[in-house]
Design goal:
The chain has 482 residues and is α+β, with helices and mostly antiparallel strands. It contains 14 helices and 16 strands. The strands form 3 sheets. The protein has an 8-stranded mixed β-sheet, sandwiched between helices. Strand 2 and strand 3 form a beta hairpin. Helix 5 packs across helix 7 and helix 5 packs across helix 8. The longest helix has 23 residues. It is elongated, with a radius of gyration of 29 Å. The two termini are 51 Å apart. The relative contact order is 0.10.
Length: 482
């Protein structure tokens, strides 16, 4: 390369040597751009490096200037040591900077490396007086929730987002390793999978359309579940899953509900056993949780030490035990024998409420528990009829977990055409779901599936009380900030 560079210049030999020296000098001195997490690996010790990020603290002394720099790649910030001459009034908490210098081993026990700065360039100013987060204060999750456009700058929420990202990776990895095919199910649909009517209808914002005219020729909604579309695919693939946003128009501001949230849903063909479904649910829960604990140890510890002290013991205990299985009838019996007074009734046929679910979890040892065989009338039309009497039940299952209640819900699907047609006629949906009946007419197989609420999963493993604190931009009734 250097010979080619010299050939390009028709100059004297002494000038050519000068050009070559300049090229070598430039190549040698160009700093390596590193993320903070890469700097902590120590691979570039002694090298000239460039690190970009946001200032988490500034401390000026007579002989040195100390900064802590974070770029979101790590909970731990990189210490920068600089000459006092590099100080600047605009170098404040929250400002964005670019620092060039030499990466050296730190003499301090609690940090493996530090950056000895040659240059500090301020990229973006930040007025610490107006900035809602203060350098020496520990802000609650409730407080930072008021600033959805800024809360990712805090330690707690940046840790949450790294955990969320790693948990997403872990779930995809589990399905890939176990032979599932990912399906991108639509966000806009004409189906109401749950049959609850809590739908957001999709219409063009333009007023230039005739009254009662539908853009899609039929009423369209934001999806409440990808299940029915997965069932279509389960006629060609024995194992499928989807992972994406779902929407419920629930007028609720509770700690457990959102209008937009993420669902992990799977469908398994050629199964007539709820045990096949519970095995996938439990294995996925364990696999994802163990992956997150191994790859996000510092971030998880922040929550387990400062947000929900002691919750790590609960998580470790969950992973040591197999998840017990009880029937709905057994659950009702447990509730009725309890001395606890419940706000909602506990007779056979009632829907289990959060207070019931949390009690059952504690009764079973404060570990996740499966509840199976719910009353047939409580479940949607697609749940498989157990054909049992006198208690008429469906082959359905919920996974209840500590601190949250219901995490997963699933069932075997009704594959018997005559029973499914009768159920659809009963609820007046035979014409709407004629395509669904076709799935049973052409090569139908016994199958089943489930859905897991991703935000509730994060609540469970981190111990976070409100679901609004485990999603980047929470949407709920009367609130759609940004």
């Amino acid at each position: 390369m250097f010979r080619a560079a010299a050939t390009m210049f028709s100059v004297t030999p002494s000038l050519s040597r000068g050009v070559l020296f300049s090229i070598r000098h430039y190549c040698k001195r160009t700093p390596t751009k590193l993320r903070v997490s890469q700097a902590f690996s120590g691979a570039e010790l002694g090298a000239s490096v460039k690190v970009q990020g946001w200032v988490r603290s500034v401390r000026s002394q007579k002989s040195n200037l100390f900064l802590h720099l974070n770029d979101g790649s790590s909970l731990q910030s990189l210490q920068v040591v600089a000459s006092p001459e590099l100080n600047d009034p605009l170098l404040t908490f929250g400002s964005a900077v670019e620092v060039t210098g030499v990466l050296k081993k730190s003499p301090h026990q609690h940090q493996p490396v530090e950056l000895e700065a040659d240059q500090i360039h301020i990229v973006g100013e930040c007025n610490p007086v107006d900035f809602p987060f203060k350098i020496k204060e520990r802000h609650s999750l409730e407080y930072i929730r008021q600033f959805p456009h800024l809360r990712c700058r805090t330690n707690a929420f940046s840790s949450l987002l790294r955990v969320r990202s790693e948990a997403t990776t872990a779930i995809h990895s589990y399905f890939k390793e176990n032979g599932f095919v990912q399906i991108h199910t639509p966000v806009i649909t004409s189906n109401d999978c749950e049959g609850a009517g809590e739908l957001f209808q999709v219409e063009p914002s333009s007023s230039e359309r005739e009254e009662n005219e539908n853009f899609f020729s039929v009423p369209a909604f934001l999806t409440v579940s990808g299940q029915l579309h997965l069932e279509v695919m389960s006629g060609a693939f024995s194992r499928v899953y989807t992972f994406g946003p779902t929407f419920r128009a629930e007028n609720s501001q509770s700690r457990r509900h959102l209008a937009e949230f993420y669902m992990v849903e799977a469908e398994v063909s050629f199964t007539e056993s709820l045990e096949d479904l519970t095995k996938v649910m439990e294995d996925m829960f364990r696999s994802a949780t163990e992956h997150v604990l191994a790859h996000c140890a510092e971030d998880v510890d922040l929550f387990h030490k400062h947000v929900t002290p002691g919750h790590r013991n609960t998580v470790d205990f969950m992973l040591k035990k197999r998840f017990p299985v009880i029937t709905y009838s057994e659950a009702i019996d447990i509730l009725n024998r309890s001395s606890q007074k419940f706000a909602f009734p506990t007779h056979w046929g009632c829907d289990l409420q959060t207070e019931h679910e949390k009690y059952l979890v504690k009764h079973c040892g404060n570990i996740p528990v499966f509840v199976t065989d719910y009353p047939y009338d409580l479940k949607p039309f697609y749940a498989r009829d157990n054909k049992d009497h006198p208690e008429h039940t469906a082959a359905a299952v919920d996974l209840l977990v500590p601190g949250v209640g219901e995490l997963c819900g699933g069932s075997l699907r009704e594959e018997r055409l005559d029973l499914l047609r009768a159920r659809l006629e009963e609820v007046g949906l035979e014409d709407t779901y004629s395509w669904y009946l076709d799935l049973r007419r052409f090569g139908s197989v016994p199958h089943g599936g489930f859905g897991l609420g991703f935000e509730r999963y994060l609540q469970c493993i981190l111990g976070v009380d409100s679901i609004k604190d485990v999603i980047p931009f929470p949407r709920f009734s009367h609130s759609c900030l940004l």
